[in-house]
Amino acid sequence: MVAPAQAMLIVMLALPALHVFWLSLTRSTYGAAPEWVGLDNYTVVLSDPYFWTAALNTAIVVNAVVLGEFALALAVAMLFAGWIPWRRLMIAVVLAPYAISEVVSVVIWKFMMDPNGGPVSMALRRLGLPELDWAVEPSHGLAMVVLLSIWHHLPFTFILLYTALLGIPRDLYEAAKVDGAGAWRRFVDVTFPLLVPAMLVAVVFRYIFAFRIFSEVWLLTGGGPARTTEVLAVYLYRQAFRYADFGAAAATGWLMLVASLLMGAWYIHQMYRRMFDHA
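Above: the chain's sequence. Below: its structure in token form.
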């Protein structure tokens, strides 16, 4: 009964992944047959300083996005699970960014944060607060990417945590109140333990999605200035389509896969232990 689904996974995922791995072991470009070079592409990529700059930027952006987004989504979900006026309207407002494409999101943020006349930049200037000079300062550019990504993907994490909160029986909170537990103890002893599975799912998916971040960086800064805001997905894109080095690009892709698996291994292990050990 599951054979069709397994066949689809093999055809759509496993075979292309194996082809990319084989490509990473060859020297390949436009108009030339692939030539076997073994692990040379991995050696070239790992000795490239731009790769390590991209890897560091990716680690900074991914952790800032995932942790910042998780904390904000949890706070918003807790607020909505309690009492909030016009709940349905406010939920629609929170979910609205997810309905906007990444390209449109970048255009909106570039307009709002334009140092020469964007409404947010002008407001910060009038308040005497520092502006985000994201087109010139690498750190400001990465901060802009983080803010944009959190804003755009917050609805995903929020809806996972919010639905999990709604599934917690109210009787547990009533019993905790009878035992004299305050708001903080109810969160620590009731909400948090029952919310852990949903938290792990949200964090794992966001790590996987955020690790391959591309559109926000490419459309916002293009990896500049001087490739200082480049992330691994942008580095891969340059190797493949700017320098036509498909072998190095494929090697970069497999390095990204291994790195993302290592980053998510602990979370996946915890999900497995909590969800299946007692089955």
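The first strand starts at residue 26 and ends at 27.
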